[in-house]
Structures are given as structure tokens and as C-alpha cells.
Amino acid sequence: MNREDFPILADDVYGKRMVYLDNAATTQKPLQMLNAMTDAYMHRNANIHRGVHHLSQVATERHEQARKRVAEYLGAKSAKEIIFTKGTTDSINILAFSFGEAYVRGGDEIIVSQAEHHSNIVPWQMLCERKGAKLRVLPLDEDLRYDVDKLEALITDRTRLISVAQVSNVSGTIQPIEEVISIAHRHDIPVCIDGAQSAPHLMVNVRESDCDFFACSAHKMYGPTGLGVLYGKEEWLEKLPPAEGGGEMIDHVRFEKTTYNQLPYKFEAGTPDFIGSCAFASALDYVDSIGRKQVTDYENSLTQYMEEQLAEVGGVRIYSRGTEKAGAVSFNVYSGDRLIHPFDVGTLLDRQGVAVRTGHHCAEPLIDYLQVPGTVRASVALYNDKEDVDIFIKALRKAIMMLG
Ligand code: PLP
């Protein structure tokens, strides 16, 4: 789909067609987004919110329009609920610090799952260390889905927040977050959703899912690197203190006392990425111009095709096979009982022009749970097609022959 819009895909790799299947790490960029970025630098580059001059006002207007665009895309009630950050990691760190300052005391508990990316573990762990709180872990069922039946038992009167991913960045599994949110809310516990892997592939709607916080990264959604979003329900954000101090986030600064800006600026210290925000809005426009539902359906069917094709390759063990996935499939290759190291598989695929990700995918607790040194992960985006998958499978068969 629309491969020609992505200039980098015209480059070859070792003289071969580039088969880019590392989209869960970052997506390639459409010309439309790249042009929007260049255009913003060429015609609207002035620091925002502060200037009385024309250029600053135009730049401010476009940045705030971009915020509205993101709010609309994610289904937020208001643009005030959209905080621009550096990415998912930054979003979760900001939330963990801010929420922790206001609501977490010694002996309190935060719940994450066994399948989280380090970005949704370490910030909470750091908070727990700071406050003397405890990190509790929601287990998985045999399909690597959250074992929601065990959630009730994990919740105590000290549980302050639950933070889980909507889609696993290792197995691509779509997680039952609606059930998590509904159980949590019955106990008046807020839920943060790590949407780094869901926002690029699913029809995310934060209001429909009723999550309290949601984090995602622009670079995984055809947008620029270094930009992300922290969504928070307005009623929560109003109650939380700022996580970082500096310009923009203040109302008045006096040595005796500083007062803070209104939402969302209270959480945006320093000069924001006002060029990246416009480029991100243009990436979202790009996806909408194709049709978000079409993109989602297309990627789902391609992921399913990839899993079916992989299942036919002898020695391949797919994780969470047969479950509903968004974008990614993870596997290992066995020669008899011997696991062929994912790094070796990835290296031989690379030599054939196929880019996949190997290793622990920044989710070591899940990899330990699977009792493997890592996995090979192939992940699709809207510009991949069956030809990419077929080349990948052929290259994998060749790699297995050489390694087996
Ligand atoms: N959470 C998940 C599920 C991810 O897949 C990733 C990145 O791969 C992150 C968080 C971190 O995203 P970023 O590095 O853009 O902050």
C-alpha cells in the first residue's frame, strides 16, 4: 500500500529490494510528512507562545492546531488533555513522577504486567524506590495475554495505579485492556495505557476505552522522532503537579513562590518541538487520507498472512500463535531441540535485504518468562505487502538451511 510515498524504500540494501520489517521499532516516513517538516522550518520557524511578531504567532497557531489534530485522532475530549513529550518513554516518566509525587506513599502499590516494555517498568520501579512503594506484576495466560482473572486478587487497598500496554511490542498480542480498565475502575484505580504499539495499528479511542492516561510515540506512527504524547483525562491532569520546571510551564515566577500555567502547558517545560508537532499532524492526515480503517484492516490481514506463512516453515516456533495481533509476530527457530540464536537468524536475513529486530526488545522480564535468549520479531506497516512477506519467508528458509 502506497510504498511510493516513502522515499527510503526506493533505496536498495546490498543491491536488493529493501524489505523493512522493523516497524515496531520505528516506521519510515512519507514524503508528505517530510515536506510538512521542511515547510515548517522554511516558513514558520519562530519560538512559540512568547512572540508578539507575526512568525511566532503563525508558528504558535500551527502548533496548537497540531495538538487539536492529535486530540481528535486519539479521541480525547479536549486538546488540553494532550501533552507533547519526547516519546512514550518520556510520557510515562513524566506521569510516574507527577502521579508519584501526589498520590504514592510508602507501602502503596503500582501494578504493571509481565509483558511490559522497560519504559513501562523502570519509571514505576524508580517511583517505588523513591517512595518505598511496591511494584506488583500481573501474570500472563498461556497465550501471553493478561490473565485478567488474577487482577482482582492482585488489587489491594494500597493499589494506586495500573499501567499496561495495549499491544505487546514482543509478540504483537492485542491485550484485553478494556477488562483491565473496567476492573480497575470498579476499585477507583486509574489506568495508564502504553499505546506505543497500539496507536500505530488500532483504531485507538481514549474516551471509548475510558483509560485515564495514554502514551504513544510519533516516530512509530510515520511521524518525526523525538516527539510523543501523554494523554490524561482533564480531571486527573488538573490534580497532578508538574514533573519538570522551566519556561512555558509557569504562570508567575517569584523567589518566594512560583505559580503554574494552565493545562496542558503545566507539563511542557521549555521550548516544545513545534516543528515536530506540525509534522506529526501531517503524518496523521496522511494515514487518514488513506483511511484509518483501511490501514488497520490491511495491516491485520498482512500480519495474519505473515503468521500463516511463518507457521509453515519447519522449526519455527511462534509466540502467542493464533491470538489477535497488531503488526508484529515474534518467533524463534529450532533445529531439533536446539534454538538457533535469533541474532544469527537476523544477521542472515539482513544479508538478504530483510530488516527484522532480534533480541529482548526492551522487554527482558517477558523474554526471561519465555526462557529464551531473545526472539526474532517481524513487524509490518502500511507500506509493506505480500511480496515483502514472501521475500522474508524465502530468506528465512535460506537462513535456516545455512544455520541448521
Ligand atoms: N512501550 C512500548 C510497548 C514500545 O514498543 C516502545 C518502543 O518500542 C516504548 C514503550 C518506548 O517508546 P519510545 O522509545 O519511542 O519512547
**CATH architecture descriptor name of the largest domain:** 3-Layer(aba) Sandwich
Number of strands: 18
Q: Name the CATH superfamily classification of the largest domain.
A: Type I PLP-dependent aspartate aminotransferase-like (Major domain)
Separation of the first and last Cα atoms = 35 Å
Low-confidence stretches: none
From the alpha-carbon coordinates, what is the Rg to the nearest angstrom?
Answer: 22 Å
Small-molecule components bound: pyridoxal-5'-phosphate
- CATH topology of the largest domain, which one? Aspartate Aminotransferase, domain 2
- Biggest sheet, open or closed, and with what strands and sense? 7 strands, mixed
Total of DSSP H or I helical runs spanning 4+ residues:
13
Strand order of the largest sheet: 4-10-9-8-7-5-6
Mean pLDDT: 97
Return the domain count. Answer: 2
Question: What report would you give on this structure?
Answer:
With 404 residues, this protein is of the alpha/beta class. The chain has 13 helices and 18 strands. It has two domains: 3-21 and 291-403, Aspartate Aminotransferase, domain 1; 32-288, Aspartate Aminotransferase, domain 2. The longest helix has 21 residues, at 54-74. The structure holds pyridoxal-5'-phosphate (PLP). Pyridoxal-5'-phosphate (PLP) binds at residues 87-89, 117, 119-120, 165, 169, 194, 196-197, 217.
Keywords:
404 residues, alpha/beta, Aspartate Aminotransferase, domain 1, Aspartate Aminotransferase, domain 2, 2 domains, 7-stranded mixed beta sheet, 5-stranded antiparallel beta sheet, 13 helices, 18 strands, globular, binds pyridoxal-5'-phosphate
